[in-house]
Amino acid sequence: MRGLFICLIPYAPNMVVIYGILVILSVGKAFYNPASMTYVAILIPTEKRKRFNSVRSFVDSGAFIIGPAIGGALILSTSVEATLWINAVSFIFAAILLLFLPEKEEIDKEAIPALTISQVVRDFTVVQKFMRENKYVTFIYLGSIIIMIFSFAMDAQEVVFTQQVIGLSELEYSLLISITGIGSLVGAMLLTIFSNKMSLRHMIVIGLIMWTVGYVIYAFSWSFASIIVGFVILGFFNVFLNAGIMTFYQNNVPIEVMGRITSIYQLIQSAIQVIFILAIGVVADLVSLRMTIVTLALVMLVASIIFSVSVLKPDKQGFYREDDGESNLEVK
Fold first, then answer.
1. How many angstroms separate the Cα of 212 from the Cα of each of 67, 104, 144?
2. Which one, 5, 18, 73, 298, has the greatest CB density within 10 A?
3. Is the model more confident about 12 or about 209?
4. CA–CA separation, 231 vs 183, rounded Å?
5. Which molecular function term from Gene Ontology is one that the record holds (predicted)?
């Protein structure tokens, strides 16, 4: 679906239609993410999920660098329209490849309930019950989401902050993004190699603290060199955090309700993210942008320390086991 709608973007007569297509693309992504998360949990054994998520972070980081480079080369050698069509074909090709993945779930299509208001309410009830019975899992996952929303708010002001406050040129900003991608790629490569030697808890804590430190350095930076240090650090350790949280989530949420729970969590994240980013934009107009970014970074750092203490509690070690000695259904 996303590939087909990307094909339509070159034919859009105005920005309103383009925004409408982007909304539809986001809807398609909202369907794909919970489904892929659940499928990975079904397909990959518990003891191999950390390794898989590490390799996936490496691939994503590589795509972060290679994708824009290929896109820029295509725009220069062909046109924007042709680049969009090639991108759409890549989505369709990826969808075809997905058809060859093994079926790991037996689905009785006749037993699938119709999409009604009452069914949506029942889904919310299932998620509410899970959150009530699994308070620690909910706290860790939603806590990580909230901390990430702080980073999204800073990222929304990134171009203005780097160019107007720090004084970077467009070329320096482009180099900054590329160097950040290289940092992510190196971090993902090392994580792929050493993931089996690092505990899940340490992966999450080290990734979170150092990722936040990168944002703090970014907030206090004053030159191109100083901001590069911050971005390389946050890019390097972001893959540790993402792979760790993803593995924790897949190991502690029952597969049969993972899709519904992921969808509701994403809904919560999207709602908070929109409101928070708009609020930060207003605050940045009322006070200095530097003060806003510094405050966000310091709050992130404090929240990360509190979060890390919760992760490292000795009595919560069972939530971070990486073998088949536990069942997701038994974790409360």
1. 26, 38, 12
2. 5
3. 209
4. 8
5. transmembrane transporter activity
The pLDDT value given to residue 106: 61
Contacts of 251 (CB under 8 A, 6+ apart): 46, 49, 319, 320, 321, 322, 326, 328, 331
The conformation of residue 288, written as its DSSP 8-state character, comes to -
% of the chain exceeding 70 in pLDDT: 92
Q: Three-state SS for 166?
A: coil
Note whether 141 and 249 are within 8 A (CB). Answer: yes
C-beta atoms surrounding 147 within 10 Å: 20
Sorted by where each starts, the structural domains of the chain and their CATH numbers stand as 2-102+116-308 (1.20.1250.20)
Residue 71 · residue 83 · CB < 8 Å: yes
Neighbours of 253 (CB within 10 A): 25
CA 62 to chain centre: 15
Query: What b-and-e string marks burial along 187-199, b requiring 16 or more CB atoms within 10 Å of the CB?
Result: bbbebbeebeebe
- The predicted-structure confidence for 272-287, as pLDDT tens digits, reads as follows 888 988 888 888 888 8
Cα dihedral 135→141→142→147 (10° resolution):
140
pLDDT given for residue 300 in this prediction: 93
Q: Which two structure tokens, joined as six digits, stand for 187? A: 């971090």
For 215, other C-beta atoms within 10 Å of its C-beta total: 24
Token reading at 168: 């970077």
Among 215, 217, 304, 179, CA closest to 187: 179
CA distances from 75 to 18, 21, 181, 196, 242 (A): 19, 21, 21, 41, 31
Distance of alpha carbon 119 from its chain centroid, rounded?
28
148: nearest Cα among 311, 303, 308: 303
Q: Give the pLDDT mean for 113-118.
A: 69
Rounded to whole angstroms, the Cα distance separating 197 from 199 reads: 7
Q: Which two tokens stand for residue 248?
A: 């924790």
pLDDT at 328 over 50: no
